[in-house]
Amino acid sequence: MKLTVQLLAASFLAQAALGFQCSHNELLKKYNVDKYTITHSSSKDTPPSTTNEEWWINICQENSASAPEGCQKNDVLCGKTKVTLNDDKDKDILTQLIDFPESVSSGASENDKGELVVELKDAKWGSNSINARLTFICASNKESSVTSVTWQNKEVQMVIEGDAGCIKKEGDDKNGDNGGGNDNNDNKDDKNKNSEKKGSSSLGSWFLWLITYALLFALIYLLATSYMSTRGGNFREFREEFVDRSTSLAKSLPQFTKEVVAKVVGRSSGSQRGGYSAV
Questions:
Q1: More confident residue, 86 or 128
Q2: 16-168 is classed in which CATH architecture?
Q3: DSSP alpha helix (H) spans, 56-179
Q4: Fewer CB within 10 Å of terminal CB in the chain, N or C?
Q5: DSSP string, 150-188
Q6: What is the tens place of the pLDDT at every residue in 75-127?
Q7: Cα gap 13→104, rounded to integer Å
Q8: Domain locations in the chain?
Q9: What is the pTM of this model?
Q10: Running DSSP on this structure, what letter comes out for residue 254?
């Protein structure tokens, strides 16, 4: 029975720890938050002393930076408050220590501005439980730093600005599938092939329509000229005239085509077209 309880406890702790393995979280793995350990310090005069506040943030297990002195080694968020007396500035008195270890409840989401928000809940602090809400604001090419620390009831709210709150660029995620690059290349090749096919198809369609219109106009021209030549005659005369003109046109097409091509490429031999008088 005791062994079963220990196994269940170990399983629970493992699941809690997985909450901070950013590479296993569908939202966190998109952001640069796993690249940074963030520190923050501030001081204010509180006569007859000076109060110094320090915070240390390391959301992802992928970043193996060691926690500062006084914090637990498995802390995700740690805050310390020290007081220095004005008449003994070489001695700091630790007056407050807040730990958010990996075992606390956690969650990641995006707010209505599309900013990454990490929430830590129910960290034990003496007889109290406190929460933390960390909002990451993207500021590319800027070192990530805490710009605001406020308390609301029993929740510490922090705003962190910098690259940690930015979405990773393509290829930055080393934990992704190594075949992703090949897939992208394959997709590009497919797109290029499709574009080539579309271009060839468009050219073929244009040429087909050109031939169709040329044949249609030639037919109309032959019918009109044959009718004008045999106007007042019978159908047999019209048919013979139409056949003669069609035959003459067919015989003259090779020479006509040759001359057109020669003019297009600038190699016209200067010869005169012949054989069109019958059309």
A1: 128
A2: Distorted Sandwich (2.70)
A3: none
A4: N
A5: EEETTEEEEEEEEGGGSBPPTT--TTS-TTHHHHHHHHH
A6: 999 999 999 988 887 888 999 999 999 889 889 999 999 999 999 999 999 99
A7: 10
A8: 16-168
A9: 0.55
A10: H
